[in-house]
Design goal:
Number of helices: 13
Distance between the termini: 24 Å
Helix content: over 70%
Shape: globular
Radius of gyration: 18 Å
Length: about 300
């Protein structure tokens, strides 16, 4: 059972699943919703969240370093699987991103419940640093395998562009006019419920049959290795308790639902990634509360 803290967010996923399968709001509707979230709502949410919350990276260096270290470990381990015996190059290029990307919808929804407004600022900093890193690392194998121009794909990725724009805007000390901030805030607010319901609408397991061992390895990195690494890091650094909770929750998040959109758009195996996203989401329901419980018991 998911922790009550997470239940409202996971209930939105269940609602999306039910709407897609039992109402006229079928797959064709959610295909459009996914594109709306990926190309407009979520980029606006990232930009406005980062732009309006002072980051003060120097004051949160250990927090930032912890998050980047967790993501970097996931990237290294996911890339290493390419040389495992019997791994299909296309499936690996498509699915490697699942091991290190994270669901920012859930992260932002969870942050305020864990640590209030400070938690939102901390997660905004981790998103600002790690979303570009994750997307660069996700695009690279797909671009290499599919023959796409790597730099061209990076400059066209809306998540990278919006995150970097928000980071630059924030670090320059700029502030949005109130009207613009309110408008962007309302657009971005739609990203979380629609994004979470779109995750539910896309839940499917069939594609995992293509490479069950590779799927198991990628999900083990995402849901076992990275949370354990985060527990070790925050303990060694002796971060404040609230920051420890945010970093461990960050490491235990389900993978990014937009992983499917990226794989499908760049010629990867969309069905395999959809299955990975589905199983990661379900594992996250239990894994996130367990990771936070392990943190409490370790103190």
């Amino acid at each position: 059972m998911p922790d009550p803290l997470l239940l409202p967010d996971f209930m939105l996923i269940v609602v999306g699943w039910a709407l897609c399968r039992f109402t006229p709001l079928n797959r064709s509707v959610w295909d459009g919703a996914e594109k709306l979230v990926y190309f407009l709502l979520f980029p606006v949410l990232l930009f406005s969240s980062i732009a309006r919350n002072p980051l003060q990276p120097g004051a949160m260096l250990q927090l930032a370093g912890s998050g980047v270290a967790v993501v970097a470990l996931g990237i290294v381990l996911a890339y290493a699987l390419r040389w495992a015996p019997g791994v299909d190059p296309r499936l690996h290029a498509s699915g490697a991103q699942v091991a290190f990307r994270f669901n920012s919808y859930v992260a932002l929804a969870l942050a305020e419940r864990l640590a209030g407004t400070a938690g939102v600022a901390w997660i905004a900093l981790l998103i600002a640093l790690c979303v570009p890193l994750c997307n660069i690392a996700a695009v690279w194998p797909l671009a290499r395998h599919g023959g796409h121009g790597y730099l061209r794909e990076l400059t066209r990725n809306p998540l990278i562009v919006s995150t970097l724009a928000g980071l630059v805007f924030n670090l320059l000390g700029l502030r949005l006019p109130e009207l613009a901030a309110t408008t962007l805030g309302r657009i971005g607010a739609a990203a979380l419920p629609i994004g979470l319901m779109a995750v539910g609408a896309g839940l499917t397991f069939g594609g995992l049959r293509a490479a069950p061992r590779l799927a198991a390895a990628l999900l083990a990195i995402r849901h076992a290795v990275l949370p354990l690494a985060a527990l070790l890091i925050v303990t060694l650094l002796a971060l404040p308790p609230a920051q420890q909770a945010v970093v461990v929750a960050f490491a235990a998040l389900p993978t990014a639902s937009s992983a499917y959109v990226l794989a499908a758009r760049m010629g990867g195996h969309g069905g395999f990634v959809a299955g990975l996203v589905t199983l990661s989401t379900l594992i996250g329901m239990a894994g996130l509360p367990l990771a936070l419980l392990a943190l409490q018991l370790s103190r």
